[in-house]
Write a structure and sequence with these properties.
alpha+beta, YefM-like fold, 3-stranded mixed sheet, 3 strands, 37% helix
Length: 76
């Protein structure tokens, strides 16, 4: 992650925005302190995929549709 001072960001904003569009993250500093982070936007699909990956750590995959070895009777 690249650190950028506010004054430098103001002078070269288009250059930094292109870098963020390309996937780079920027940390913005003012007087030596971090004041913000500029990160690329995620699509809804990417965000959903990341949430599913996080759920895998606490959920049992296949627990609902796993075969149980028993025959089921369906009224219908």
């Amino acid at each position: 992650m690249r650190r950028v001072k506010v004054t430098e960001l103001r002078h070269a904003l288009p250059v930094y925005l292109k870098a963020v569009q390309a996937g780079e993250e920027l940390t913005i500093e003012c007087r030596g302190k971090i004041v913000a982070r500029l990160v690329p936007d995620r699509s809804a699909e990417e965000a959903a995929r990341e949430r599913l990956i996080a759920l895998r750590s606490s959920a049992l995959v296949g627990d609902v549709i796993s075969p149980v070895g028993e025959a089921w009777e369906v009224d219908g």
